[in-house]
Structures are given as structure tokens and as C-alpha cells.
């Protein structure tokens, strides 16, 4: 097939808008949406941190921000990688992240669960009890990211979430009646003391397109999936959304649209919780003791048994 | 297993609240929720119409309303059956509906697509073009119900939708970004000229429990499914919600809860459309020509070809 915009050979078909695109026009189509989204979400002056796991999504988010910021004198991009300690999986992607930062000339910082929590995720998995690894990992990852970003005086943290991730999360929060969590989704507009707001530059782009972009740009990308993903509820939602998208192209977009239409009313219904320094670790928290410290305590007790 | 409330043998296990119930306690549990819901949604004085297809849901809704209203002097229950004209399916359920009304002493009215639209659903199926049967059927059914209920001066129409139906519809509207349709879901509070508001007495009760109730009460119930259901998008949602409920009992309830929390904001965002008499049929419509008349015209043209 030919590109719908020129005579060249198409590399992809975008089902939800019916377009065939060649490499050049796909790259243009991709970058346009990311740039537009970044403009909309806003990039404050100062240090911009990107959460770089080394997977395809965060690598592409990092590259796009580098591309946009390289000529900005008043903004500086740094990358933060959280090493959860997952043997045979994270070691590889950390190498990829390191290489990418080297090539682009981005300062790269690594923060590990082992140093901050005292246990790797593999060790947590052994003693986790009834909670899935993803529960610990999500909380500790946010804790680590925020801590290091704050130390580096970052104004914002960019996450690699794509449209598939975002639409899954919206749907999950809606179905679980967790509207408060829905109201707190990134991008964050309100600035809270000690808490670095998040932006999500790729939220308008389906996962498949991020993969294709990474491939076309020749990025080094690991094909591995996190070994603990199997226990994530997300899989059921993922499967359903793929089926739905197959029958009704554009479903992921329309979920995001529903969310955006309700956003204002959600933010009114659930105004940001007043954050306070956690009594134990001093990091911002909506409770006297933050969730990371609560889970750390849970693990300590469970280890003693 | 024994009933969680007495020493008798349990007939069912309610997964989302962990209770085993005997026949008596299940019936009590079932009826309590339906009565509570009816009180909440409100039953105006005068004629109450129930849309009775003869399937298990509408039969149970009809029976429950009869049970509640039989001692009310200022409210009268009537049943309306829409005969879409589906050979081998609707004929059977119409007989069941007729029998139930006879037994309970309820006035029973039948209105048919053939008389009102000029075509049975089977005939529509032959010439339908790109729209599924369900699209025509839904619009024409609403049209017929409203027309006959208005002629009988009904104050409200009760529908048999159970929790599975309602949670599917909410999810479908959310995913399709059809928030306006979500805002217009029954039960209706605002009264619009010419339009009979709907109530949904069974919306808190899962389908499985309606089936069990119908069985325990010895209702004559057809096991057949509408032959056109196969083309309904609903099936995908149904499948997903069953899987979800299996893994997370209570998911259907939490979807309804999310909806109820957003209801006020949705109704503000989408105030009821001003209804006007349709230029052709005089029935209430948000457009100059109502959807039923538009679809009738579409069918007429398609038949001429």
C-alpha cells in the first residue's frame, strides 16, 4: 500500500483514522501529537526529569523530550532510573537506559529499592504475603522517583505512559469505583509542597505506534516483559481493550475523551489531599505515615516471622 | 452448605457479600432490595405501566410491582407487551406474559411493530442495510412503549433491567464517550411533556439472582435468547464483566456506584433536551423528526430499491 499523504510505500495502517503512512509521514504524525500534548501539559523552566526504565515507552518519551529541549537554554533534561532489583529483566533495561543517556548527553541517575527500601523486588516477592508484587513496586517506585527528583530540584517528572496504559487505568479506576484515584491521574496541574507533578507526553499515542516509532528510530529495545506482570489485574483490562479496539477502532481514544470531559467535575469532587511530611521518612504524604513506610513496615514484620 | 442466617439448607451463595442463603432468606434478601429501590426511585399515583416482554426479568419486575401495589388504592398496575414480530421467539414469551397477567389480574395490552411501523422485526432484518436489528428494535420498542403508555395515561414505565444490564450500559456509554446517553439513563426524575419517565426496580440485582428468584417462585420462563442478539455489541461487554466479576466479585456494583457518584455532574453537564412533538408522528422528540420516523423512512427507501 502507498502512503495516504505521498507516493512512498506505507509502513503502517492507522486503523482508527483509516490512514496509511510511510516512514516519514508516520514519524511526523507521531511527533506532532507528542509535541502538542507536551505544549498542552506544560513544561516549567528549570530541571525536567524523565522516568527512564529503558523500556520502549520511557525511551521514546526521553528521546522526544531531548529533541524538544535540546535548544532550550532555560530547561535541562535529566533521566532517573529506578532499579527495582528484578534479575534478568531490569539489569538489561538499565544498560539500555545508560546507553541512551550517553548517546544523547543526558545526566543519568539511578536509585535502587535495595538502597532505599532495604530489599530488592525479587526479595520482596519472597515475603510479600497477600499483596501482589505490583502493589509494592508501584508505591516504592513513586517514592524513589519523587525523592531523587526532589533532590535534583526537578520541576516535573515525565512518565512514558501511552494511550493503552492510560485508557486501561481510567477504565480500571472507573470500574473499581476509585474515582478519587481517577481525579489524581497525571498530568498534574496543582503544585503541592514536596511532591513533583507528573506529565505524560505519550498519552495520546497507542502502544503499537510507540513500538513502531522506537523501531524506526533504531532504538535498542528489550522485548522482555516484567516477570511479575502475570499477577497484575491489568492483563484482563488489556485483553478486553485490545478486543474492543479490534471491533471498534478508536475505543481507547474515546475512553480518554470521557475522562477529559469528566476531569473538571472529578477535580472539584476530589480536591488534592493536603500533603504533609511523612513522620518517618519526611517525604510528602496524605497520611501521617506514607504508604511506602507502611509497606516497608509490613515487609519488616513479614520477614521476622 | 447451611444458610448464613438460619439452620436451613442454602440454595445459593452470594459471592460479592460472602453469604449462603436458604430459599426463604434469599427471597427476603431479593425482595428487600427491589422494594428499597422502588421507594428510592418513586412510584407516582395513578397508572403504573410495566414493560412486560415475558422474559424472566420483566416477569419478575411485573410480579414485584404487583406485590407492592395490590393493596394500593391510588395506584393501578398495567402491563404493556411490545410484539416486535420475531418468529419462534416472541410468540412464546407473549403467551407467558398473557398467562402471568391473567393469573395476577393485571390489564394487559399488546402493541406490535407490524401495526405501528408496518414491518415485523423479521421483515426489517431482511432489508436492514448496515444497521443491526438491535438498533431498529431499540428505537421502535421505545416508541411503541411510550405511545401506548401515554394512551393509557401511565405516569411511569417500569423496565426489567437488572444489574448486569445496567452495568453493561454504563460501561458501554463510558467507553464510547457517550456521556450524554449516560446522563439520560433511567430512573428519570424530570418529567417532560409527552414522555413517560422510566424506572428500573431491578437495577441493584444481578441477573443470576433474578433467574433464581423466577425459578423459586415457579414462574414460567423461556430459556430462549433473541435470535438477533448475536449481532449486539453488548456480548463483548457481557463476557468481560462476567470474567471481571469472577476475579473481583462486586465489580458490577462498583460500576453502578461510579455512575451514581457522577450522576449529578452528568445531569448538570447534559440537561434534558427540550422535547417537541415529532412533525410526522406527533410523539415527543429532541429533533424535529423523531428517530423512529427517521428509521421508518430509511426502511421505506431500502424496501423500494
Written account of the structure:
The structure is a homodimer of 305-residue chains. By secondary structure, the first copy, chain A, is an alpha/beta fold. Chain A has a single domain, classed as 3-Layer(aba) Sandwich (Rossmann fold), CATH 3.40.50. Chain A is built from twelve helices and nine strands. Chain A binds chain B through residues 171, 174-177, 179, 233, 236, 240, 243-244, 247-248, 251, 254-255, 257-258, 261-262, 265, 269, and chain B through 171, 174-177, 179, 233, 236, 240, 243-244, 247-248, 251, 254-255, 257-258, 261-262, 265, 269.
Poorly predicted segments of chain A: none
Query: Could you name the CATH class of chain A?
Result: Alpha Beta
- Helical segment count of chain A: 12
Oligomer: homodimer
Would you list the SSEs of chain A in sequence order as H and E? EEHEHEHEHHHEHHEHHHEEH
User: Largest interface, per-chain counts?
Assistant: A-B, 22 and 22 residues
Largest sheet of chain A: 5 strands, parallel
Total number of domains of chain A:
1
Notable traits:
305 residues, alpha/beta, 12 helices, globular, Rossmann fold, 5-stranded parallel β-sheet, 50% helix, two-stranded antiparallel sheet, homodimer
